[in-house]
Write a structure and sequence with these properties.
Helix content is 19%, strand content 41%. With 191 residues, it is of the alpha+beta class. It is elongated and about 70 Å long. Strand 12 and strand 13 form a beta hairpin. It has 2 helices and 17 strands.
Length: 191
């Protein structure tokens, strides 16, 4: 976590200066619907085509009052698949996840187009409803963090980041109960 925080502090300063410029990369958490079960997979994509040498993921799903649990984060299956030195957990906890990945030593950068993050979520016993998925503006006890991309000089790459939503759907039994309750209403309407 210390490495991530030190690097992020420098990047946050660069980010504040670079916000005036045009965003080259676009990283959106998107809106996803999942079942109330374990091993629910969602993919997060990046677009824009900028050359990327590294990426620091700052992630929050739900909040302190609840939401799906992040059981696995995979940065190695997407655009970094054949060109990385492994992903690092930079000090995650139950609510906030901080991971990083860089291209292999002296390797060419990856192109910022395609699958960036594959998340595996556990929504077992999670109440149906909408839960935030944040990749920007994570308000932690240590400060506010955003996901960041960087080039070969460890300079910040300007990017547009958008948070999203995960909708945990009701169990199929709930849908069946609603459907069964609606049958008498439909019969009355026909008479």
């Amino acid at each position: 976590m210390r490495r991530y925080i030190q690097f992020s502090a420098a990047v946050m300063t660069l980010a504040a200066c670079a916000q005036v410029g045009r965003a080259e990369l676009n990283f959106q958490a998107g809106n996803h619907a999942i079942a109330p079960a374990a091993s629910q997979v969602i993919d997060l994509y990046v677009s824009g085509g900028e050359a990327i040498h590294g990426f620091n993921l700052a992630l929050q799903v739900g909040d302190a009052s609840g939401g799906p649990l992040v059981s696995q984060i995979d940065l190695e299956s997407g655009i970094f698949a054949s060109n990385n030195d492994g992903q690092l957990d930079d000090g995650s906890d139950a609510l906030f996840k901080f991971y990083s990945i860089v291209v292999a030593n002296n390797a060419s950068p990856v192109t910022g187009n395609g699958l960036l993050v594959r998340l595996t979520l556990d929504a077992t016993n999670v109440e149906p409803g909408d839960y935030a998925i944040k990749i920007a503006g994570l308000a932690t006890p240590l400060g506010t963090y955003d996901s960041v991309f960087f080039n070969g000089n460890a300079d910040f790459i300007n990017a547009s980041l958008s948070n999203g939503t995960i909708t945990v759907l009701p169990e199929p039994a709930t849908f069946m109960a609603i459907g069964l309750a609606a049958i008498p209403l439909l019969r009355r309407r026909r008479r």
